Amino acid sequence: MNEKNENIYSNNPYPGIRSYTLKESHLFFGREEQIFDLTQILNNNHFVAITGSSGSGKSSIVKAGIIPKFINNNPNADFIVFKIGRAHVWTPVTEYD
Fold first, then answer.
1. What is this structure's pTM?
2. For 53, which of 1, 18, 27, 31 is 20 to 30 Å away at the CA?
């Protein structure tokens, strides 16, 4: 890849098929209403399950939307994110990127 193409890809705010990360939350937009609704559910119930079809943005809304909002609103709160893996085993996620 030449230098011109590297600059295009490095400045592109769309991550492609991978999900947005916590560090890219400033680039994630357009889901403010869902983020607000989901954080309200978290504040009231302390749990929210996010389901949907592959590629619908579940991971992005959690990593670049809900987690940053939750951290900003509750700087001293603890939270655990679980991700389902092979054989439907739920494991805590320790890295959010």
1. 0.72
2. 27
